[in-house]
Write a structure and sequence with these properties.
single chain; about 900 residues; mainly alpha; 5 domains; 4-stranded mixed beta sheet; two-stranded antiparallel ribbon; about 45% helix; globular
Length: about 900
């Protein structure tokens, strides 16, 4: 029986309150250690010491020393450093410090001389060492009286007070001077900080700039010249908000914003883990589920629930799924995105299984909690209040579905989408095909026998009886005499495989019947599969804490739970061991309900911060997957809370947040800033202007196809395959190595022009044209994309077959649309690529460039048929188009 100790009071008047275990949340009852929480204040504020153990020293020792001196009962040298009192008691070498005498204290001397900690990675900084000396010199003060014993991890008030664990507050909308600039509360929060620093918003973005920024933001594609012209000429006050709604309703919106979520979910069409990198044939159904969910503006709490526990929501039978339930199973692909080599040969299958689980937990916690929970897999978290037991209690939520002792390989997780109706129709079609095949078999036997008799007739009659017996006997059962006869007279060995040698007409007739049966079978409903996460009925494994994260060293049993620190700060639902309302344990549904409960301090903040990040290029919290001690503090904490509450109160509508952000003055600002603001706020953390942003890898490729006029806008479906070309670059194509690499080219019939989100995403095969532009690696997921400027990007746009091909396609397009008018062609190229007219000086320079290229190309291009002069002009124009694709104005959005 475990007790929960709540220690309140001051140094002078401590009070110890012991609660019996029964009324406590199940999470705390299930914790296999005594949780000691110190809450209170040491004394009045003016008596608080400048440096204290709890606030300054304990975090240093926890990060570098606890694992050898106190954690899990380990006390090297007999020393426990988890409490100041323990340090004073000391170990085998005596007290660790002498109050008031830092230089003479053993603790200070060992860390100063670099002897402790022994691991180089944990060496203390000079500032940390100096803090220890100052604390000892000050008399080693503490903020409160310490407990007599510690039987488990300690969560201090300082850790509990971290901003991200506090309940979401309802902030008051700030009052600002520039009220005319406030479109909605977002502007008030942003403007308040700008005005506090003596600044205000910059000027609004020009309409051409704004529409270009907006369409890229919502759809990942540039606006057409017609869309730009229509918007610029529209004087309606709601012209802009209408554009927002128009592109939020576009299927391209889901493709763009679904891709953002696929990053953090770790989406991949291959297993990764090792060099085999096996293909996941059904992963794309999860990708399509995500895109549809964003297009439908599925409430995000429901989106989370379906991804964590879609299998616990289905109502139809697993062998006769409705389309709705098939979609719910596809949603659970979220829990199948981690690298997984368990379907092939691995050195240690149990290690591989547990690594899959660990990577899955990392995806779940980083995407939904914004916490580095995985750091507690082997020991208590070094910086955040996440005990190791918390990690395994959270893992216990998933153990029934990811049972490493009753593991299901990727192939075993595939669930057929065949229904009873499909099976019935398939059986009828198979019956029809078998009739044809039965007729074929009958004819085949007749043809073989007739052919055999013709061949037998050519032999002496005395061999006929032996010949017929040999022919009627299976080859393996023939007597030596029969085998000898066949060897001497091979023409007697008439079989289905050799019939064509004797009777071509008969063989053709049989082939026609086989083809007819195959054509009939093609009418069968295709048997599709979904990559799903499901619990095995009636199998609920026990969950254990693993010593140092080693699955071969299980310790105490643990029960499913969320993070302890959240339960201590917020009134959120707990996770039962088994929910009787479900045929499964219901644990994952309970976790989803806990995470999306309005009182949960993390989930809504994490999601709105990520949405803000994709709109502005930076989050209100710069570390979107780390809201802990090592993460960044929010630049605008009140705005973060306001957005989180607005998100929850809107029914978790992502499109509602989009409308708020996109219609704000903050988002519609121009990208230029005053010198004073730039000097005061170089990282633009005050949001006094828009950020100049480079388009990402997928948008580079999609925009080139779109501008060239060949983008295939089909939605959903199987991915476009990736293969190696002759020089080993990864390009679009169907793998065919029969004739060497790449072998015979198999046409993709327009699929090569599909959007990049539909290109096969294999961990070992990043499409070369996108890899240069920071295409993320899913290991296991992408927490935030980084935009670099590197030489390979220019080289790719200068030399790649992709850039050369579609520069020429764009040249062909503008030649066709504006024949025999170079100036009009140049203007069209500028409008398509940049969304604006070329300036007169740019037209002159472009004309001169094309003229120079024509001279260089003369004599180099010859044609058997066609207009050589036109071909030269087109090639020169293609070189100009390639320059546009390679320019900063094409690659950056202001």
């Amino acid at each position: 029986m475990y007790q929960f100790l709540l220690w309140r009071g001051t140094i002078h008047s401590p009070r110890l309150i012991i609660f019996p275990p029964t009324p406590l949340p199940s999470m705390l009852r299930s914790t296999a250690f005594m949780l000691v929480l110190l809450i209170g204040r040491a004394t009045v504020a003016d008596q608080a010491p400048a440096v204290s153990f709890e606030k300054d020293i304990r975090p240093i020792l926890k990060a570098a020393c606890f694992h050898c001196h106190g954690e899990e009962g380990v006390k090297e040298g007999g020393l426990d450093v988890r409490l100041s009192r323990f340090l004073l008691e000391g170990g085998d070498s005596g007290p660790a410090f002498v109050k008031g005498k830092g230089e003479e204290s053993y603790l200070y001397q060992r860390v100063r001389d670099g002897e402790m900690p022994p691991e180089e990675s944990h060496q203390l900084s000079s500032e940390e060492i100096e803090t220890i000396r100052k604390w000892i010199d000050a008399g080693a003060p503490t903020l409160r009286e310490e407990p007599e014993t510690l039987e488990g991890p300690l969560i201090t008030p300082e850790e509990l007070a971290h901003w991200s664990y506090q309940p979401i507050q309802t902030p008051e909308i700030p009052k600002v001077q520039g009220t005319e600039l406030v479109t909605n509360p977002i502007d008030a929060f942003i403007l308040q900080q700008l005005e506090a620093e003596g600044f205000s918003f910059t000027t609004p973005a020009e309409r051409k700039t704004l529409i270009r920024r907006l369409k890229f933001n919502l759809t990942g594609l540039p606006p057409t010249p017609e869309e730009i012209e229509k918007f610029v000429k529209n004087d309606s006050p709601d012209a802009y908000s209408q554009l927002v709604d128009q592109w939020l309703a576009s299927p391209h919106y889901g493709e763009r914003w679904g891709r953002h979520w696929l990053d953090v979910a770790g989406y991949s069409d291959s297993e990764g883990y090792n060099t085999a990198d096996k293909v996941r044939p059904d992963a794309w159904r999860y990708r399509d589920y995500v895109i549809r969910s964003f297009n439908e503006d599925k409430p995000f709490d429901r989106f989370i629930l379906e991804q964590l526990a879609g299998d616990e929501l289905i109502k139809s039978k697993i062998n006769n799924l409705t389309p709705e339930d098939a979609e719910l199973l596809a949603a659970t692909g979220f829990l199948r995105m981690a690298p997984d080599g368990t379907g092939g040969a691995v050195d240690d299958k149990n290690l591989a299984r547990n690594e899959v689980i660990a990577e899955t937990l990392k995806i779940v916690t980083s995407s939904l909690m914004g916490m580095t929970v995985g750091c507690a897999q082997c020991h208590d978290h070094r910086y955040d209040p996440i005990p190791q037991a918390d990690y395994y209690q959270l893992r216990a939520v998933f153990d029934p579905a990811l049972d490493w002792k009753k593991w299901r390989t990727p192939a075993q997780r595939r669930v057929s989408l065949y229904t009873d109706e499909d099976r019935k129709l398939a059986a009828e079609i198979e019956k029809e095909a078998k009739k044809i095949l039965a007729e074929r078999t009958k004819k085949q036997d007749e043809f073989i026998q007739a052919t055999f008799e013709k061949q037998l007739a050519k032999l002496p009659e005395e061999l006929h009886e032996l010949g017929r017996a040999a022919h009627a006997t299976p080859a393996k059962k023939r007597t030596p005499e029969q085998k000898d006869l066949i060897k001497k007279h091979p023409t007697l060995n008439v079989t289905a495989g050799s019939l064509y040698l004797y009777d071509r007409k008969a063989a053709d007739e049989l082939k026609a019947l086989a083809n007819k049966a195959n054509e009939i079978r093609k009418k069968k409903p295709k048997q599709n599969y979904v990559r799903a996460t499901m619990e095995l009925n009636g199998v609920v494994p026990d969950s254990y804490l693993f010593a140092r994260g080693d699955h071969e060293q299980p310790k105490q049993k643990v029960l499913p739970s969320g993070l302890t620190v959240v339960s201590l700060t917020s009134d959120v639902p707990e996770i039962p061991e088994n929910d009787p309302k479900f045929s499964t344990t219901g644990r994952r549904t309970a976790l989803a309900k806990r995470l999306t409960h309005p009182n949960h301090p993390l989930t809504a903040r994490v999601i709105v911060n990520r949405i803000w990040m994709h709109h502005f290029g930076q989050g209100l919290v710069a570390t979107p997957t780390d809201f802990g001690q090592l993460g960044s503090k929010p630049t605008h904490p009140e705005l973060l809370d306001w957005l989180a509450l607005e998100f929850i109160n809107s029914g978790w509508s992502v499109k509602h947040l989009h409308r708020l952000i996109l219609n704000s003055t903050t988002w519609q600002q121009a990208a230029h800033r005053s010198q004073e603001l730039a000097a005061s706020d170089p990282e633009n953390l005050l949001y006094g202007a828009a950020n100049l942003r480079r388009i990402d890898a997928e948008t580079v490729r999609d925009s080139i196809l779109f501008v060239a006029g060949v983008l295939n806008e089909d939605v959903y479906g199987e991915p476009v395959p990736v293969m190696a070309d002759k020089v080993g670059r990864w390009v679009l194509g169907i793998e065919n190595l029969n004739a060497g690499r790449p072998g015979k080219v198999i046409p993709l019939r327009g699929k090569e022009h599909r959007r990049s989100v539909y290109v096969q995403s294999r961990r070992s095969r990043p499409l070369s044209v996108m890899e240069a532009f920071d295409l993320p690696q899913m290991s296991p997921n992408c927490e935030v994309r980084r935009a670099s400027t590197a030489t390979p990007q220019s080289l790719m746009l200068l030399n790649s077959e992709f850039a050369l091909k579609y520069s020429k396609v764009l040249a062909e397009r503008i030649q066709k649309e504006h024949p025999d008018n170079l100036e009009s062609q140049i203007q069209q190229a500028w409008n398509l690529s940049y969304g604006r007219n070329a300036e007169s000086s740019e037209v002159v320079e472009a004309q001169a460039f094309v003229g120079e290229q024509v001279k260089l190309l003369e004599g180099r291009i010859t044609l058997k048929k066609g207009d050589v002069a036109k071909a030269i002009q087109q090639e020169a124009l293609a070189n100009l188009c390639q320059m546009l694709f390679s320019s900063n104005e094409f690659l950056y959005i202001n």
